[in-house]
Design brief:
This protein is of the alpha+beta class. It is built from 26 helices and 31 strands. It is about 35% helix and about 20% strand. A hairpin with a 6-residue loop joins strand 21 and strand 22. The chain binds one RNA strand of 85 nucleotides through helix 7, strand 11, strand 15, helix 11 and strand 27.
RNA sequence: GCCGGAGUGGCGGAAUUGGUAUACGCGCACGACUCAAAAUCGUGUUCCUUCGGGAUUGAGGGUUCAAGUCCCUUCUCCGGCACCA
């Protein structure tokens, strides 16, 4: 009898599938389309570990199940290969990024292939291929033409180790998202995409997405919409006006002082001579603090009086103007009206500097700041006794009359900084002409090819290594034909990934990024499977670009990803995050070389727990999934080794129907772990049945063939092999998902639970369809139950049809 | 601090609308096969127990004939954001 040997069968089938192209997608209108996508990976030098594999496994199960359900499945794969990790890897290993990516991609692809994932490799894309980034540049120009890409000098996050600026989204707790070093602020002229123009739509459209609440909430918080008003405070002795943003205009009568951020442009003008030195010292001191220090919320607030006073527009009170670094220059107007009675930060500041506190909303806690009070107004002149809600509206509308206030909405989200001072990215297709200024590279001159250069090291002077390449920089102006210079910054890697899902619909198109028809056919993505790490980066950027495309009439949908599925993280067996530095990673390569096979790894990835919950990898558990597959293999071999018979039984089809139903329902609800458990139960049942039935029977063949089909999405290799051994034609992976006969599940008897006061005391077996009266009698007649009921008055009998009877005594 | 998720055996986890808590797997124990071991097959396995039972889904209350599931209070862990006025 042949032994189960994954090393033998897995490569064989992988080769056959690729040769026969059974996973290729075509624009076939006869079947419903299904676009299943996993985020296209970064082919870094590190080997994939079982955590990454889980992501692709989930996608593959969804894709395979959909295919067996008769859907037309697009399940593509490609490489997000621009960006820092790839470049740093290349520098570290002293090879060119191009070469590093080619090597890594080859290796990564092998790793994916040996897991038996059903990708349509004919659609493979690589974001660093000029044929691809040509269109990334095309999108840049589209945004530029629409006024959504602009250049601006401002203070930006700068990573001193990676020597490039970073987007806000790429700074995590004050550290560079890639290398983990502390970031700094640096004033540089940079390119931005105007995502803030889309803030409201990006927020509103979240409601209709089938995404987890966790990710939706993260995006909502990141966009950070606040409704309120902008209010102008005139200075007491100067013509200048300080504009503030507030969400609580109802508390204007409680504004007892104002605070400007140290970087506020008015600071120099309004500071009085007497306070000049003190203010300058404070600003210097504040600048000396690292940006990380400034962001610590629990640090004691500091500030300094400017000597200037402003006039509160609601009551003409003169209030002092301070500066303090707890006010952020980048949010709102960079200035606030301070209402210590109703804001904790202002309260703390007022207490420290002995500034007046005036309560304007009634509440019961006089010794602290009451921030979210809604109540009756007090100390607010004509507005007294109004609700804060009413006061909010009336004060703004009254101030509006003399132009001192207006409704205003603020967002926390900032424009997306996309220029990078690094080599390995798509060049920004812009030419700087001394005469014509900033000029777009004409479309027919795309791509602006990234030149091959000798040294990729970032220079750290605020310009990319491309600035050292005269052949690249020097060009002619497309407008005037005179000498001009190319932009030397490259684009953030997230630009490439903001549209790649569209390219898969039409990957070889040389005339346009994608054809409308193909995009219309495949998009939006039906199932997008990935980790939560993309929540406020890729997933936000891709939504933004899709909306721009929609506005441009290039696509007919506003959201790229209908359903988002976040897989849970796989932790190391010690319960910690897997990382190379901790040395606790588990890689499929090593599991394969231990003889487990891709099938049992895949099974383990899902059987370990719900796909969207994290779980620690279990080395012993691998033995269990391997044993399970081996037991399936053995059953088929035993069946094949005996004569075919016509014996029929009731039990076999019934067990099969039960398992098919359970597995199908679980698959439908993505209950992969329980679907596998149902198949394990079936196999356990078959092991019992082979003792009492003839394993050579035709019924057994049906049962084993069905089992193989049910198992096929999880364990594609062994099932393909057994499918063939059982004498079936074609591939199990394009066979129809099995159905079951509900009639087989009807039994002659049923088991009724008998409870006394809600506690289970007995089980009784009664004929199917037995009436409530007969069940009550049968229960009362039960030896144990009659014991309990003896001498007791039954107050109530609760009967749940065909399930349970409860005597309340 | 705010937001999101989760707490069930020795371990990973299971449990339609509230209706037999602990499916399935791991681990462990015992048995069969074997000269022996591995592999394989089988049996058992929540805890306590005076063997009648009793207790049990992070903790404490509540609703109900009946609560892992619903309500209130509370604790712990994980993830995200963090002086956003």
């Amino acid at each position: 009898m042949k032994r189960y040997n994954p090393k033998e069968i897995e490569p064989k089938w992988q080769k056959t599938w690729e040769e026969q192209g059974i996973y290729r997608a075509s624009e076939d209108l006869s079947k419903p389309k299904r676009y299943v996508l996993e985020y296209f990976p970064y082919p870094s030098g590190a080997a994939m570990h079982v955590g990454h594999v889980r992501n692709y496994t989930i996608g593959d199960i969804v894709a395979r199940y959909a295919r067996m359900q008769g859907q037309n499945v697009l399940h593509p794969m490609g490489w997000d290969a621009f960006g820092l990790p790839a470049e740093n890897f290349a520098i570290k290993n002293n090879i060119s990024p191009r070469l590093a990516i080619d090597q890594n991609t080859k290796r990564f692809k092998e790793q994916l292939m040996q897991m038996g994932f059903s990708y349509d490799w004919s659609r493979e894309i690589d974001s660093t291929d000029p044929k691809y980034y040509r269109w990334t540049q095309w999108f840049f120009l589209l945004l530029f033409k629409k006024g959504l890409a602009y250049q601006q000098e401002s203070l930006q996050w700068w990573c001193p180790v990676d020597k490039t600026v970073l987007a806000n989204e790429q700074v995590e707790a004050g550290k560079c998202w890639r290398c983990g070093s502390d970031v700094e602020k640096k004033a540089l002229k940079q390119w931005f995409f105007k995502i803030t123009d889309y803030a409201d739509r990006l927020l509103g459209d979240l409601d209709d997405l089938n995404w987890s609440d966790a990710i939706k909430t993260m995006q909502r918080n990141w966009i950070g919409k606040s409704k309120g008003a902008e209010v102008d405070f005139k200075l007491a002795d100067k013509a200048d006006v300080i504009r503030v943003f507030t969400t609580r205009p109802d508390t204007l009568f409680g504004a007892t002082f104002m605070v400007l951020a140290p970087e506020h442009p008015l600071v120099g003008q309004i500071t009085t001579t007497g306070q000049k030195q003190a203010v300058e010292d404070y600003i210097k001191e504040s600048q000396a603090k690292s940006d990380i220090e400034r962001q610590e919320t629990d640090r004691e607030k500091t500030g300094i009086f400017t000597g200037a006073h402003a006039i509160n527009p609601v009551n003409n009170e003169k209030i002092p103007v301070w500066i303090a670094d707890y006010v952020l220059s980048g949010y709102g107007t960079g200035a606030i009206m301070a209402v210590p009675a109703h804001d904790e930060r202002d309260w703390e500041f007022a207490k420290k500097y002995k500034l007046p506190i005036i309560r304007v909303v009634q509440n019961d806690a006089p010794d602290e700041a009451c921030t979210h009070d809604e109540g009756l107004m007090i100390n607010s002149g004509a507005y007294d006794d109004l609700s804060s809600q009413e006061a909010r509206e009336e004060i703004v509308s009254d101030l509006k009359k003399n132009g001192a206030a207006d409704e205003h909405v603020n967002y926390k989200i900032r424009d997306w900084l996309i220029s990078r001072q690094r080599y390995w990215g798509a060049p920004i297709p812009i030419i700087h002409c001394p005469k014509d200024g900033v000029v777009a590279v004409p479309e027919d001159q795309l791509p602006v090819v990234l030149p091959e250069i000798e040294s990729y090291e970032p220079s750290g002077d605020g310009r990319s290594p491309l600035a050292r390449v005269p052949e690249f920089i020097n060009t002619t102006c497309p407008k005037c034909g005179g000498p001009a210079e190319r932009e030397t910054d490259t684009m953030d890697g997230f630009a490439c990934s903001s549209w790649y899902f569209l390219r898969f619909a039409d990957p070889q198109n040389e005339k346009e990024p994608f054809s409308r028809e193909n995009a219309q056919f495949w998009l939006p993505v039906d199932d997008y499977i990935g980790g939560a790490e993309h929540a406020v980066m890729h997933l936000l950027y891709a939504r933004f670009w899709t909306k721009v495309l929609y506005d441009e009439g290039l696509v007919s949908f506003e959201e790229p990803f209908k359903t988002l599925r976040n897989q849970g993280m796989i932790l190391a067996p010690d319960g910690q995050k897997m990382s190379k530095s901790k040395g606790n990673t588990i890689e499929p390569d090593s599991l394969l070389s231990q003889g487990y096979g891709a099938d049992s790894i895949r099974l383990m990835e899902l059987f370990i727990g719900p796909w969207n919950q994290s779980a620690a990898w279990s080395i012993e558990g691998m033995g269990g999934t391997f044993r399970f597959l081996q037991r399936v293999w053995t059953l088929v071999q035993e069946h094949l080794s005996v004569q075919v018979s016509d014996q029929t039984t009731v039990e076999l089809p019934r067990a099969l129907a039960k398992a098919t139903k359970a597995a199908s329902q679980d698959m439908h609800e993505l209950g992969f772990n329980t679907a596998i458990a149902a198949l394990m139960e079936l196999v356990n049942e078959l092991y019992k049945l082979k003792l009492t039935t003839d394993i050579g029977s035709k019924q057994w063949k049906v049962a084993l063939t069905t089992l193989v089909q049910l198992l096929a999405p999880f364990a594609p290799h062994i099932t393909e092999e057994l499918w063939q051994q059982l004498g079936n034609a074609g591939s199990v992976h394009v066979s129809d998902w099995p159905s079951w006969d509900e009639k087989l599940l009807i039994t002659d008897t049923m088991v009724i639970v008998v409870q006394i006061n809600g506690k289970v005391r007995a089980n009784i077996e009664v004929p199917a369809g037995c009436s409530e009266g007969d069940i009550t009698k049968a229960a009362q007649a039960h030896e144990k139950i009659s014991e309990y009921l003896r001498g007791q008055a039954v107050k109530k009998v609760v009967y749940v049809p065909n399930k349970l009877i409860n005597f309340v005594i």
